[in-house]
Amino acid sequence: MRIAHLSLTDYRNYERAEVSFDAGPTLIVGRNGQGKTNLVEAIGYLATLSSHRVSNDQPLIRAGRDAAIIRARLQSSDRELLAELQINRVGANRAQLNRGVVKPRELVRYCHSVLFAPEDIALVRGEPSGRRRFLDELLVQRIPRMAGVMSDYERVVRQRNTLLKSARASGLRDAKLSTLDIWDERLVVLGSEIIAERLNLIDRLQDPLRAAYQSVAGDDQVPRLVPALSIDGSGAGEEGDVSDAVPSETGSARRAASVTEIATHFRDMLARLRGRELDRAITLVGPHRDDIVLMLNALPAKGYASHGESWSYALALKLASAELLRHDFASGDPVLILDDVFAELDQARRRRLADAVTGYEQVLITAAVLDDVPEALAGTVVRIRAGEVVDA
């Protein structure tokens, strides 16, 4: 799959932008602050319905405007699609596919991309929420219906937390606890499906992660992903960063469990923590409290890996994601986006990264200086200046 043409209206610092892309590598060049990242961010948004830089949509809309529009012509084999997304400052976002109205989450079925940026080192060094988001965005690209499951689950967590606060304020009346039992079951049904799919995804990532890490790091260290699940007691009592300690293998073994087995453990842990949840008025068990521990050989990468190792691990996670997507879809490779990464690398790492991505159908690379990008990735050049495409 590739992006043949991208059109932006009132997106970030772009009043209007029209740019065509060829297959192979395209270099998007411009000084810092001109809008290079904004351009590729828009492509990433179509694939994940989120930005890798901000947690809500408001900054994506040009100042003084009510909406931003992303329009992309997608080509896959002999098929061509027009995907359009309107990001509204007020009200729900709207989407079209080939001029027909669809739900925004339908777009992720057709637009697949993987974006790597320097900020992704937080996957290794940052909080569990970033790693959960990484898993869920990849999961939704692979199984689009999971977007609805996750949305329903988040709504149940909010409703349940409201009920817990109400029960605590009213002295834990029986009527409130009876209603809580109903929400518990809904939490278990939705949460168990998310946990099961995440565990399957983690299992699928292990081999491509090892191959990707060795290709970019050039050594024989072995990365491994270990689930840390709140239904097993990991992080269930506090705001869940369990990745600074060597994990048990309980979560790893759970990957073979069925949704039914996961649900049983989920219910048991909810029962055990009912009193603590009522005291704190917050839901302490579920996929919103889970983590993955990024192991490097026998130690967690967080706290033990060097800067270079952490960078290689984060990049390997993204390359493994791209490898998984290219094998999952008949539509071909995802669009691979490298946002301002080559300036951070020495010559050896630049060459290894270039070798790792050369075979992808379309690679979009942003850089402030053209010379930072290896010759192996030389291709079409798009120049950006002050929110305008000045040379494409």
UniProtKB/TrEMBL annotation:
Residues 231-250 are annotated as: Disordered. Pfam families: SMC_N. Transmembrane segments: none annotated. One of its GO terms (biological process) is DNA synthesis involved in DNA repair. One of its GO terms (molecular function) is single-stranded DNA binding. It is found in: Cytoplasm. The keyword Isomerase does not apply. Keywords: ATP-binding, Cytoplasm, DNA damage, DNA repair, DNA replication, DNA-binding, Nucleotide-binding, SOS response. InterPro entries: DNA-binding_RecF, DNA-binding_RecF_CS, P-loop_NTPase, RecF/RecN/SMC_N, RecF_2. ATP binds at residues 30-37. The RecF protein is involved in DNA metabolism; it is required for DNA replication and normal SOS inducibility. RecF binds preferentially to single-stranded, linear DNA. It also seems to bind ATP. PANTHER family: DNA REPLICATION AND REPAIR PROTEIN RECF (PTHR32182). NCBIfam families: recf. Belongs to the RecF family. This is DNA replication and repair protein RecF.
